[in-house]
Amino acid sequence: MLEQKRELVQQHIKTHTERSEEDVAAVNTLNSFLYAEGKINTDFSSNDKWPNHDGTLEFVPDPDLDRRPKQCFYVQIKGTKNYTPKDGAIKYLLPNLAFPAFICNEVTRDPGLLFVVLNPKERGKRRVFWRYMSVQFLNSIDFSKSSCTITFSPESEILDTDESVNAFCRALDHIADHHAYINTLRTDDYTVENVIRLIKDCDEQIEEYLINFSLQKQTRDKLSMRLLTRMNDLSAAALLLNRLKQTAGATSIRLAWEQALLDRNTKYLSDFYQGMQLVNLHIPEEGQSERLMLKYYDFLWSIREFLQRDYDLSVLKELEKFPLRINTLDQEYYAMAAATVQQSDDAKSSWSNVRYYVQKQEPFYVEGKRYYEVTLQLTGIYATKYNRVTVYTRERITTYYSVQIKYINTFLTLWDVTSPIKVVTQWKVSIDPRCLNRLAAILKMPAKLSSNYGEYRELMDFLTKTGLSLLDLIDLKEINFSELLDKVYEKTNTHIFREIITRLHDDYRRETAKPGGNVIRYLLLHLREETLEAVYPVYHNNTWAACPELLLSKKCAPFDKSPFISNLVGSKTNALGLTSVLTRAVGRERCHKAWPYLYLKQQIVRTGELYFPAGTEAFPQRVAEYNESLDEWEQNQGYEIRKNKDGLYYIDAYEKSTLSILKRLLSVSQCKNNGQEAFNAYFLRENEASFTDPLKVKAVKNAFVQSRLLLIYGAAGTGKTTLMNYLSDLMSTKNKLFLAKTHTALQNLKRRINNPGAGAVFSSIDRFARQREQPDYDIIFVDECSTIDNRTMELFLQKIKPDTFLVLAGDIYQIEAIEFGNWFFYAKDIIQTDGAMVELLDTWRTKDATLKDLWSEVRNRRTFITEKLVINGPFSEDLGENVFTQLAEDEVVLCLNYDGKFGLNNMNNYFQSANPNNPAYIWQEWRYKVGDPVLFNETRRFPSLYNNLKGRIAAIQKEADRILFTMDVERFLTENDCRNEEIEFVQSTPTGTRIRFSVYAYEDSKTEDNEELRKKTVVPFQLAYAISIHKAQGLEYDAVKIIIPSSNAEKITHGIFYTAITRAKKILKLYWSSETMQAVIAGFSEQRATPRSLEYIKQELGV
Length: 1103
Fold this sequence. Notes:
This protein has 1103 residues and is an alpha/beta fold. The mean pLDDT is 87.
């Protein structure tokens, strides 16, 4: 904000301006220089038409699309022959300060530009320089003097060329996006009248954008980009107005921000303002502005409500014109959910015993009222993503921490099926005392806090009422920290955690820079048991010695040094979705410095490429600053950004890992094996009757003759696993290892490999890569290679001996690795040795010609996917009651994710409710019926009931403190197996085993100090009427139903879609709207174009 004194500024403001001959000539020169085909419209005067300035300049970014100006600028134009060149720069003495004073004093949203024309009357010697009157520049002027010297850098010169003028236009565009009038106000300007005037000014322009949106051919992203330019001022103004409502005294943005934090009903103002500050660091890329706008729409809705209620100020009247694009089905569902919420009586609700994290919170709007659809995740190290529940409420949950909810169990009828729905009427912060005690232990201040303590209840009540995080609390500057803490503890008998909070404030608030500070600050936003356990050192020799004041694992050091590029141990903190959380914890400056790395990483994740052109003109300089900030360890880890011979940028580690894997595979592929050709021929003669596919015969014939490597590529259902089975038989005398990324794929391998051999081992590739000591294997089979990331593959290759045979199978068109994994994609073009690679083409999974035709069209991203879906099946219909119609005995319902009204968890509830034959047993927040199909989750309690094991509930018995499940599981267990895991063996069945086990009620008083009992409070399975697409990879069913709601359209990648539709052997049905179908298919053409990186990789490898 401006820091200049008003009286000093105002003494320079004049009623007229003296014009020299050079000034008059400069105006004519500038008019001729600034021709930009309609992008710049000037209204300059060479006489004394306007006091203190020389006219205006309107900037129009794209006059062919819209001739209305994006930004108007006040202008002063000076001509001179008196200047001093120095080191490539130009020094100029501005003879009076009238124009800077005018910009300082003027209450306007329009920024100022100073132009200086050198030698304006001398043809061939004219040069034009410019300077933006930014807050930083205005604050640098000494207004106690009558003039100031300005230095113009070479970059601030405008040449008389199209290229230079276009660069100037880009700079104007940047200023228009980032200029905020709020920054030009001094503290003494923060009056209710001034702030309301600013709000009306913002509202006028926002209203104009929204009204004209429907009249112009604009995209929603373009509209969002324009709206964002006004939201920085609007967010700050609303923040200030909230503060001014409570006090008439002097205020500041910082004080207003802290004031808003102290009430959960105004906390959104702080979040909105802080989010806008992050946006202002970088202009969103094309297609990203609308994502921000969809988030900020809720904030705008709240600001409108606040201004109407407290100031009778009607603003944002046209907000509903912003296209949220809610489809008909969603609107109908939301209307029913809203009605259910409205009819719910808080008096009939009850508090949950368990705690939840807010996984996702989406607002929706019905008849002028706002509601929220909230996905809650059960807390604790024994809970999984399947322990989630979707609830509806009018209450915005404003905390990062775990909560308890007060809710009502009621019902909603959808597609003639009445299903349970939970309505939340209240919520409260409820951090597990274990988390607070573990945090205290990390600070070396052991505590034994319990939920029974009065100070625990007071602290939770304070965090609930304010919406503050502990990080917000310790960072308070303007509001007295100690006085606030006194209020929390004034009625408590103990002060155990007060000392801890005080220590955090003294040592780890934002201004301090102690070792471990970034770790502690992140933990204060993310007080989750699994995160705290991961950073705590298990053994004494694992302690971080350089951080003696804290008890942290030494593996925390990389994150503490560079939180945006290094993961915190045990967490995926550098995932792109956590950037805003990290920024809040460690500061915008660190995010700004790491921006080149984050930008390139985002491009890599989006495209699969390695090499990219500079993102902006400033990119090279930003890269240099980023690289300079890295220490030796970070450089050795490959975090440095490099530039190749063609000027394309890449992250060192990503290129190194790709080249390392491919070099090793190249080496293995070039090892001959004398005698193998004859042996293969003998095997084929002996087993001739077994082979039906000529391609597989050819693959076996050439296997391991010229190479110790065999890459198997193939579409879904082409028999990749069948070929692996043939190769296993071929190498029947060898010591074998079978690996896969997921448990589903591993179980599929076990079923499909007929004779693995007596010593064969089946394991996950992650477990193999983590083990220090490995037995020697003659041949290793790895399935579903497209899902294996580069880091895991590098570790795997480091563990195997040089003479090991490798069989690597997968489909590059199916689901890709969650982390960076491009090696299998590029290996297909890099490995050229005869017999080292086979691509299977014929689909054996189905005999249905229309299915095969569709799969081929989708796999190859051809033109007529829509036609194949509509005409051949038809395979598509709107999501509705037909989804409950059984298509085959062996059928599955596939969903992309677990959250939301049409996510996996809710779809399971709908299907369960559609089966009325058995009564429902309610346990905590979940319902179970006899006959429910289930899948077991990974659990520490029952190792024998592995992840994805299928089962069905045979009987349920509910008691006061526990629920007993009798289950038929598809695994053969012995009585001894069961006894070791506290499972009751009931009997063997034709397909597995009938077992019985108990799940106990969760109570803080009983479970806080009883780890074994706590482990038994988590239900170890999920309903499986529907399963995720990821879990279905490698499986096949007679009939497949795929649910794709509109909210998932952009998340359905080509690989995910292709994987889903190729699970069907006979019948395929997709439940989605026409608009969703169009959006999904259109996205396929944008994903992974012809890779530019392949040629560079080949050059590096010399192939």
